[in-house]
Write a structure and sequence with these properties.
The strands form three sheets. An eight-stranded parallel barrel has the order 1-2-3-6-7-8-9-12, surrounded by seven helices. A two-stranded antiparallel ribbon has the order 4-5. It has a single domain, classed as Aldolase class I (TIM Barrel, Alpha-Beta Barrel), CATH 3.20.20. The relative contact order is 0.15. It has twelve helices and twelve strands. The protein is an alpha/beta fold. Helix content is 39%, strand content 14%.
């Protein structure tokens, strides 16, 4: 692990006091796991079914969780909308749905710039600093990793308490000082690996998937199922390299490739990637993130997404897999069960003038509950058509 973490690591905070970081990570090494090994193993089995075309993966939740919103009411609202979406998908397609929440750990966020428009260190998620616009609040504070673990534990307790069915938790594997803490040796696979107790499923973001970087090297050591976000600049050869490194034993569903191409590019960029990976012999989960490639700034200064663009990228994703005879395995969306006004369009016809009314996200815009259910119906129709015409 030391060798993996010694590689260049993108998107990490500049901690002002390394000794405090060491003290905090030492505490976390002795912290209780948030997820159980049996749960993670069960998810791996479910994802193998997805990779074989026998199930569908629904993954969603807040763009960035916050400590302030880690309340039972907010968590239950987000879980409820995922359950509704899963019910729509199952009822309309008769296909089992594997539900994974962006929850119980989605506290770190990659950013495009190190400072904001006011010259302050950029907000990197509640696990690193505060969104308040002062230098003190924006200074990275390692103690927040302890708060993140405590909040994630509370969130996982809520999942177990209120979800009768299987709902797993996931987050972006971004802040490596946190990710390297709650680990144990998992000897259940073809070779011993480390298992993360911080989430059932972890993914590597598009900004941290450098082949020579620490994030990919660290993920190679883990037995948890791993996702990799791939944007429009990824090549088919790079995609195959990720899969070969992360799935050396060709385990179905071990790797989820999450395409985030943008609605204007998915139909052109995705096909050669799918063809090349399939030819490699690996059975991956093909998942579409229709959110991040379709983000824009509104005329009144709000980061937003247009529902029609989200739908168009999904339509392109399904078209590609239908043409190639492969399984469109899932979607990865930023949603909330609350009545926010962050994405444009949908049946309610949210416009740019509506954005300030209930724009509450800590980072990127989410579909509200109504838009999320509408999207589930659309995805169910796309999936049904693909299943009947492949």
């Amino acid at each position: 692990m030391t060798e993996a973490l010694a590689r260049p690591a993108a998107q990490q905070p500049c901690w002002p006091d390394p000794e405090r970081v060491s003290a905090v990570t030492e505490q976390l090494h002795h912290a209780d796991p948030i997820v159980a090994p049996a749960e993670t193993a069960r998810l791996s089995d479910r994802l193998a079914s997805v990779a074989r075309g026998e199930a569908f993966l629904l993954q969603g939740g807040d763009c960035a969780e916050t400590f302030a919103d880690n309340t039972e009411s907010h968590l239950r609202a987000n879980l409820r909308v995922l359950q509704w979406m899963a019910a729509v998908l199952t009822d309309m397609t008769s296909m089992p749905v594997v539900t994974v929440a962006r929850m119980a750990g989605q506290y770190a966020k990659p950013r495009s710039k190190p400072v904001d428009a006011h010259g302050l260190p950029v907000y990197r998620g509640d696990i690193v600093n505060s969104s308040a616009s002062t230098l003190d609040a924006r200074t990275p504070d390692p103690h927040r990793m302890l708060r993140a673990h405590a909040n994630a534990t509370t969130a996982m307790d809520t999942v177990r308490k209120h979800c009768a069915g299987e709902i797993y938790v996931s987050h972006e594997m971004l802040l490596l000082d946190y990710e390297r803490t709650v680990l144990w040796v998992d000897g259940g696979g073809p070779e011993p690996r480390l298992a993360s107790g911080l989430a059932h499923f972890l993914w590597i973001g598009d900004r941290t998937r450098q082949p020579d970087g620490a994030h990919v090297a660290f993920a190679e050591l883990l037995s948890n199922p791993i996702g990799v976000k791939i944007g429009p600049d990824v090549t088919p050869e790079q995609a195959v390299e990720y899969v070969r490194r992360l799935d050396p034993h060709c385990t179905p569903g071990r790797v989820t490739l999450v395409s985030r191409m943008g609605h204007t590019m998915v139909r052109d960029v995705l096909p050669p990637i799918v063809e090349k990976v399939n030819a490699s012999g690996h059975e991956v989960v093909w998942q579409c993130d229709p959110m991040h490639g379709n983000t824009r700034m509104s005329a009144n200064g709000y980061k937003t997404r247009i529902v029609d663009h989200v739908v168009d990228e999904l339509a392109g994703f399904f078209e590609v897999h239908r043409q190639l005879g492969t399984h469109p395995g899932g979607i990865h969306v930023e949603v909330t069960g609350e009545d926010v006004t962050e994405c444009l369009g949908g049946a309610a016809g949210i416009t740019e003038t509506d954005l300030p009314v209930r724009y509450r996200t800590a980072c990127d815009p989410r579909l509200n509950a109504e838009q999320s259910i509408e999207l589930a119906f659309t995805v169910a129709e796309l999936l049904s058509f693909t299943l009947n015409n492949t």
